[in-house]
């Protein structure tokens, strides 16, 4: 039987959670507060917590200085492209590994797993060269390309497919379905919660991906939000309040998305044990 | 409507040393209801799956009508299959589950609806068409699985232990439903089960298998009354036939507490085939052992003294576990006589119904 926590342990649990929450949320609050400060206030020692007058022009300045609409668009295209392709291709590969028999299946899956163990940075150079050879550097397509397949996604969805019974496939075969129809009409809809989880993860990773967009695209109007914001960081001085204002602008869509899809976010993370 | 012929069919799985199915030969007639029965792992499901095209045939030829279909995909064999776990598509409604195969065949929508409605009515599913499988009981799911097969009007119906996940009462009910269905549809059906009662009640012909080999093919009456070997004798019938080793000499069998005179036809067969003085297996069905006075009086030479070790009252009948000089013999007798555990009892063996099997080959001697 599940035991109700005692009052004492409840207090302990809550204190721990509150400390955790504060640790997570403080940087965000600091970001918002700094975005309203003057440059002098933001670099003061000892630090000044609240701005004397909230400097709205920081937002105006940064919005005028950078093509945010372009950034949003590029980021949106990157996320949509990566989510669409990586869930589709991962699901196909995962289905093959989980449900079909073909020679070299185990070796194939081993290779996929091995790829998860290698740091992503190692792939940057070959990916750059590939995209260069395709003549796609400095395009929005370049932002999508490295994210169209996902070893993690293949692994994650394989687990979902493994849980689904095999006899549905046999029933469908007898019903007259081809492998493609079995995949798209039966197994794919049943892996919905896995697809949603993977979609959310992919979107999050794409959104916060910095290195690749920074390397692949150098013109400002082909940059994603994360890469675009970094241009505010100067080599010698950085206008912190404007950088923070830009950051607030860039995370706003994600916050709104989170509020809308809160339930799926939490379910996705809970069901996969990811973080 | 189809005839199926299995010719010298073998199945060997990769990495396996022995055949899962060995030299399987059978001709299934049009509209026939064939039941494959045998203990788990005897190859009955494997054979069914080879007919369905879900398992490759290692050796031999499978004909549906006059065509060899070894390499024909399941969808092109015009068969329908009902699975043990139903294998319904959980994200589809009952209607869509039944319509799936028809949609794939690009059948016009109104015809699909007509067929599904007709099958639903036949199976009592009309009110459930909008439900998803999760909202159905086991029996209803089973009926949907049947419906999915029925709408296709296939040449052959294959059923792989379709009732084994249902509770006892529902199983009996669905058994009758399947029998009715077969009558209505007039289609060839091949049915796999490990339950000999299902096999006996449903089949036109039963195929009894063990260790990948056919032991006997015959009508329920034949396999029950004239088993080919000791395995069939013990597998068909519940409680199972009593089988004991005895020695045959001068028209008598002795051993294991038994000393009985065999019937004239049996004596002739045993003598002709040279079993004089040899050890053989003596089989007698529990219901061929009698306790009524009239039976005891009629054939005093077959009466044996016994002690009742356990008496199980099932209602109309009692199952008696008798100790005959150290050998356990099971008898099914009329329950109107009261039988007390531990008491002595005289029983008469109906030797006209006795079966004899060779000790080595276990083949019947007749």
CATH class of the domain at 66-231 in chain A: Mainly Alpha
Q: How many beta-strand segments of chain B?
A: 20
Helical fraction of chain B: 25-40%
Shape category of chain B: elongated
The CATH architecture of the largest domain in chain B can be given as 3-Layer(aba) Sandwich
Q: Could you name the ranges of chain A where pLDDT drops below 50 across 5 or more consecutive residues?
A: none
Instruction: Tell me the CATH topology of the largest domain in chain B.
Output: Rossmann fold
Description:
Chain A: It is found in: Cell membrane. The complex is a heterodimer of chains A (275) and B (366). Chain A has a domain at 66-231: Orthogonal Bundle (MetI-like fold), CATH 1.10.3720.10. Chain A is globular. Chain A has helices spanning 7-34, 39-42, 57-65, 68-99, 105-117, 124-133, 140-144, 151-163, 167-175, 179-190, 192-208, 211-216, 225-230, 240-260, 262-272. With 275 residues, chain A is mainly α. With 366 residues, chain B is of the alpha+beta class. Chain B has helices at residues 44-52, 94-104, 109-123, 138-150, 168-185, 196-202, 220-225, 230-235, 264-272, 293-298, and strands at 4-11, 21-28, 33-37, 59-64, 67-68, 79-82, 156-160, 188-193, 205-210, 213-218, 242-249, 252-255, 258-261, 279-284, 289-290, 303-313, 317-324, 327-334, 344-349, 355-358. Chain B has a six-stranded mixed sheet with strand order 6-7-8-3-9-10, sandwiched between helices. A five-stranded antiparallel sheet of chain B has the order 13-12-11-14-20. A five-stranded antiparallel sheet of chain B has the order 15-19-16-17-18, with no helix packed on it. The longest helix of chain B has 18 residues, at 168-185. Chain A binds chain B through residues 165, 167-168, 170-177, 181, 185-186, 189-190, and chain B through 52-54, 73-75, 79-81, 83-85, 87-91, 100-101, 104-105, 148, 152.
Give a brief description.
Chain B: Keywords: ATP-binding, Nucleotide-binding, Sugar transport, Transport. The complex is a heterodimer of chains A (275) and B (366). Chain A is an all-alpha fold and 275 residues long.
């Amino acid at each position: 039987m599940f035991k109700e926590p005692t009052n004492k342990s409840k207090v302990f649990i809550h204190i721990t959670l509150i400390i955790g929450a504060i640790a997570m949320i403080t940087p965000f609050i600091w970001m918002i507060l700094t975005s309203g400060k003057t440059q002098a206030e933001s670099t003061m020692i000892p630090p000044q917590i609240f701005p004397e007058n909230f400097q709205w022009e920081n937002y105006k300045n940064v919005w005028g200085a950078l093509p945010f609409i372009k950034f949003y668009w590029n980021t949106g295209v990157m996320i949509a492209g990566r989510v669409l392709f990586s869930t589709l291709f991962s699901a196909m590969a995962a289905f093959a590994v989980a449900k079909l028999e073909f020679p070299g299946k185990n070796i194939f899956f081993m290779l996929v797993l091995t790829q998860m163990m290698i740091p992503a940075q190692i792939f940057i150079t070959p990916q750059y060269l590939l995209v260069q050879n395709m003549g796609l550097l400095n395009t929005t397509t370049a932002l999508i390309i490295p994210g169209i397949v996902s070893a993690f996604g293949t692994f994650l969805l394989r687990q979902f497919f493994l849980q689904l019974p095999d006899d549905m496939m046999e029933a469908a075969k007898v019903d007259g379905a081809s492998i493609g129809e079995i995949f798209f009409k039966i197994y794919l809809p049943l892996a919905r919660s896995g697809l949603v989880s993977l979609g959310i993860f992919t979107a999050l990773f794409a959104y916060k991906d910095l290195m690749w967009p920074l390397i692949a695209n150098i013109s400002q109007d082909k940059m994603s939000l994360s890469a675009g914001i970094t241009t505010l960081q100067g080599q010698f001085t950085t206008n912190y309040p404007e950088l923070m204002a830009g950051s607030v602008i860039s995370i706003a869509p994600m916050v709104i998305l989170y509020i809308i899809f809160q339930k799926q976010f939490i379910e996705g993370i809970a069901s996969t044990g990811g973080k | 409507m189809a005839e199926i012929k299995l010719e010298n069919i073998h199945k060997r799985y990769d990495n396996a040393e022995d055949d899962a199915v060995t030299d399987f030969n059978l001709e299934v007639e049009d509209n026939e209801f064939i039941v494959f029965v045998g203990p788990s792992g005897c190859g009955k499901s494997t054979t069914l799956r080879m007919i369905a095209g879900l398992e490759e045939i290692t050796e031999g030829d499978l004909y549906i009508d006059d065509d060899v279909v070894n390499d024909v995909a399941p969808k092109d064999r015009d068969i329908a299959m009902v699975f043990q776990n139903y294998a319904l598509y959980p994200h589809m409604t009952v209607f869509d589950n039944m319509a799936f195969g028809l949609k794939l065949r690009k059948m016009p929508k109104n015809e699909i609806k007509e067929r599904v409605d007709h099958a639903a009515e036949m199976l009592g599913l009309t009110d459930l068409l909008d439900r998803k499988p999760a909202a159905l009981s086991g029996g209803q799911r089973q009926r949907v699985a049947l419906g999915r097969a029925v709408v296709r009007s296939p040449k052959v119906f294959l059923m792989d232990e379709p009732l084994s996940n249902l509770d006892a009462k529902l199983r009996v009910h669905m058994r009758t439903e399947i029998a009715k269905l077969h009558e209505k549809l007039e289609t060839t059906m091949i049915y796999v089960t490990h339950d000999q009662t299902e096999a006996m009640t449903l089949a036109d012909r039963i195929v009894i298998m063990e260790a990948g080999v056919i032991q006997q093919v015959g009508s329920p009456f034949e396999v029950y009354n004239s088993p080919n070997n000791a395995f069939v004798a013990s597998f068909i019938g519940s409680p199972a036939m009593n089988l004991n080793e005895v020695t045959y000499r001068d028209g008598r069998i002795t051993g294991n507490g038994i000393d009985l005179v065999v019937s004239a036809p049996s004596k002739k067969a045993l003598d002709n085939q040279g079993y004089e003085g040899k050890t053989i297996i003596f089989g007698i069905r529990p219901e061929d052992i009698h306790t009524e006075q009239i039976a005891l009086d009629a054939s005093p030479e077959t009466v044996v003294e016994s002690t009742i070790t356990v008496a199980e009252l099932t209602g109309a009948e009692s199952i008696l576990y008798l100790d005959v000089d150290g050998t356990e013999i099971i008898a099914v007798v009329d329950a109107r006589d009261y039988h007390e555990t531990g008491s002595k009892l005289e029983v008469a063996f109906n030797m006209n119904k006795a079966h004899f099997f060779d000790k080595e080959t276990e083949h019947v001697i007749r």
